Amino acid sequence: MSVEGNNATAPSPAVAPGGEAIEPVAAARDLARRWPGGIDPRVPAIVPAFDAPFFQAGLAGYSDAAMRIVARRHGCPFCVTEALLDRTLLAGGRGFNKADLGALHDNIPGGAEDHPLACQIMGSDPAEMAAACLKVAEQGLRHDKVYRQLAYDHLSPDERSEVFDTHLRAPGGVQVGRIAADPREETCETLIDEVNAVDPALHPDTRSPRHPASPRALSFETIDINLACPVKKIKSKARGGHWLAEPDGAIAILRAVREAVPAGVVCTVKLRRGFDDTAEMAANFDRILDAAFALGYSWATVHARTVEQKYIGPSRWDILRQIVRRNPDKLIFGSGDVWEVGEIFRMLSYTGVAAVAVARGCIGNPWIFRQARQMLRGEPPAAPTLAEQRAVLEEHFRLSVALNGEHHAGRLMRKFGIRFAAHHPAAEDVRRRFISVGSLAQWREVLERHYPTPG
Ligand SMILES: Cc1cc2nc3c(=O)[nH]c(=O)nc-3n(C[C@H](O)[C@H](O)[C@H](O)COP(=O)(O)O)c2cc1C
């Protein structure tokens, strides 16, 4: 997981004409009256534990298993991994530089507790995407070489050697992040269980029971195809959101993946509302969305910004609403400008999406999920106490150490601390202190000084 840089820009309000009048409390109440848990029953029919109309979005550089587990312990019913490049997966985690997003170990479930989970894959070539998604679906059951053959057999010898020279280790090399025969080997599960074992007081209700490893601990409930990431093309090859400008290629990827993975494996897609604001790109979006559903994709998460917008400027909930209205029988999830709990219910009510992706609004704020559940129960959403803030910072840190090692966790937790500070009564001061943290010892000092333990 990259610890450098982030796209965490300042909140912008979504464009939702007429939406100002929506009262989140009333919207939550109406939803809870309509459906158990406030969620369209078609969603838990696909993923049984997805029992509330919100989830944690993929967030490259943040949403590793530690963040996901903290979110789940606060009521988040479903999480998405950060986007992993298909080639990274086919190469067993090696062969790419930092610009290539997503590390393999961040896309492995963090034990039995880290479910249900979507594995998000992104790429440029239908055959590579299909092979990578098949590898995810099969948990790497076949030899790595076989997946690579599936991905690259159609290439000419020259293209093939270019791909292997540039991107892949020689077939047959030791695969980093290989899915082992013993599922406990090389996964985060052992580490997370160890953390829980040394700290048995940690969430006794939600802690995963110690049990023999099951294949489920490794598997994913869904595979999510990323047609949304705005990061630039490499060597003029489209990927992520850039596919919205090339609908034939996008559809070829969706088709290749759906045909490659077994029919029982749930596939979904994440996409932007368009590449830009032109009518041509809006038509491309419609074509890709229609094709996804026709091919059997179970839901589409629409980030209501364009690719050109990246993460800046308002999300167009008005356009999202039109998309939902044009597709009344399809499951559309929404993303963009969900900064606090009320916006979950505003987006649900205004746009009619079946579920809301919480992204920047949950970085340093797992309580948003607890608050959303409280609102669905008709209770007032509770802000975290200082003691809760400290407990979660420590918990997140322990999980992160288990996953990433102390050095890396220290750097990550500086980043998270800056975001957690928003809840502190002296938010700006604490934020500045986290920003100036240069070592783990200093991080702990901020905790001791600003988050005193009672008594
Ligand atoms: C730092 C960062 C990393 C992101 N990484 C991913 C990713 O890996 N996969 C994905 O589908 N979306 C990713 N997104 C997009 C978010 O899931 C979400 O769609 C977007 O931030 C809009 O929601 P927001 O305005 O409520 O934050 C990322 C966004 C940010 C800010």
Blueprint of the fold:
Blueprint: H1 24-34, H2 42-46, E1 54-56, H3 65-73, E2 79-80, E3 84-85, H4 86-90, E4 117-122, H5 126-138, H6 144-152, H7 157-167, H8 188-198, E5 222-227, H9 247-260, E6 266-274, H10 279-295, E7 300-306, H11 317-326, E8 332-335, H12 341-351, E9 355-358, H13 367-376, H14 386-404, H15 406-420, H16 427-435, H17 440-450
Parallel strand pairs: 1-9, 2-4, 3-4, 4-5, 5-6, 6-7, 7-8, 8-9
Bound molecules: flavin mononucleotide (FMN).
Residues 6-8, 57-61, 82-83, 120, 226, 228, 270, 303, 311, 315, 335-338, 357, 359-361 line the site of flavin mononucleotide.
Describe this structure in words.
This protein has 455 residues and is of the alpha/beta class. The protein has 2 domains: 19-376, TIM Barrel (Alpha-Beta Barrel); 386-450. Helix content is 42%, strand content 9%. The protein contains 17 helices and 9 strands. The protein has helices at 24-34, 42-46, 65-73, 86-90, 126-138, 144-152, 157-167, 188-198, 247-260, 279-295, 317-326, 341-351, 367-376, 386-404, 406-420, 427-435, 440-450, and strands at 54-56, 79-80, 84-85, 117-122, 222-227, 266-274, 300-306, 332-335, 355-358. Strands 1, 2, 3, 4, 5, 6, 7, 8 and 9 form a 9-stranded parallel β-sheet that branches. Helix 1 (24-34) crosses helix 12 and helix 15 packs antiparallel against helix 16 (427-435). The longest helix is centred in the C-terminal third of the chain and has 19 residues, at 386-404. The chain starts with 23 loop residues before the first helix and ends in a 5-residue tail after the last helix. Residues 6-8, 57-61, 82-83, 120, 226, 228, 270, 303, 311, 315, 335-338, 357, 359-361 line the site of flavin mononucleotide.
